[in-house]
Design a protein that fits this description.
Aminopeptidase; eleven-stranded mixed beta sheet; 8 helices; 11 strands; about 35% helix; globular
């Protein structure tokens, strides 16, 4: 649960699992092992990317050694050379210590942030994400996050399914050129803002802030769910300005199956 905001019914672990579960649903091929205790997924592609082979320990009372050993065995059986374990702070300290001791590589760290403010109506209104401008959305993601286009195409392979699962999605344009984008995904008892990206040539123009504000307005107009997101260190000031507060730490750990 969030540690610094008493009374808020938000499970960071379940919202993260919901986010990754959405990524699983968008992909066409792959195998999943999901119980009340674990969530493991392996896509049948070779991309070295967290979305294609990842695991989350849903029940923190499972011994770290058991979860780690069984995860390695499962992914190795899927012919994966590596996979990613996702951890949240507090209840996953034992797992993080184990991963550090076996030489796992930390490949990402972000803060989960929770929206605690009034909705500010943005001045610039982005276009709703549709099939007709989905290519523009992917172009922004590729430029903003330096991802290979083929990797994004594989992740968002079933575009109609992606759109059906979204609470909201926006694409921002400047002189008919896509310059910013973001989506909102239902993740259990919350809504997660994700893929908030700005084209590198248009950073510093306030696009990320307006995109977040617009998505928050969209979410509140459709449902009364709490809003969360994962932030890099660089993006944190933008999200704080939009009304978000830090509530937990998330890390991605790369694990070779032959470890």
């Amino acid at each position: 649960m969030t540690k610094n905001q008493p009374g808020q019914d938000i499970s960071l672990r379940s919202s993260l699992a919901g986010l990754f579960r959405s990524y699983v649903e968008w992909q066409v091929v792959g195998e999943r092992l999901e119980t009340d205790s674990v969530l493991l997924f392996s896509n049948n592609v070779s991309y070295a990317h967290p979305f294609f082979a990842f695991g989350i320990r849903m029940n923190p009372t499972i011994e770290a050694e058991v979860f780690f050993r069984e995860s390695v065995r499962w992914f190795a059986s899927k012919n994966k050379h590596h996979f990613v374990i996702v951890t949240t702070d507090g209840q996953d300290d034992d797992l993080r210590n184990l991963l550090s001791s076996v030489g796992a590589m930390q490949i990402g760290r972000s803060e989960r942030m929770l929206f605690f403010s009034h909705i500010s109506s943005p001045r610039q209104r982005g276009n709703a994400l549709k099939l007709s401008n989905f290519t523009d959305f992917l172009a922004i993601c590729a430029a903003a996050f330096d991802y290979e286009q083929e990797c994004l195409d594989a992740l968002f392979r079933d575009r109609p399914r992606v759109l059906e699962s979204l609470v909201a999605g926006r694409v921002f344009y400047k002189d008919e050129t896509p310059v910013g984008a973001g989506i909102a995904i239902q993740t259990g008892n919350a809504v997660t803002l994700d893929w908030i990206g700005t084209h590198p040539l248009h950073r510093g123009e306030g696009l990320a802030l307006r995109c977040v504000q617009h998505l928050c307005c969209d979410v509140y107009s459709r449902c009364a769910r709490p809003i969360v997101l994962s932030s890099t260190l660089a993006g944190k000031p933008v999200y704080e300005k939009a009304g978000f507060t830090s509530c937990g730490d998330v890390r991605l750990h790369r694990i070779p199956t032959g470890i």
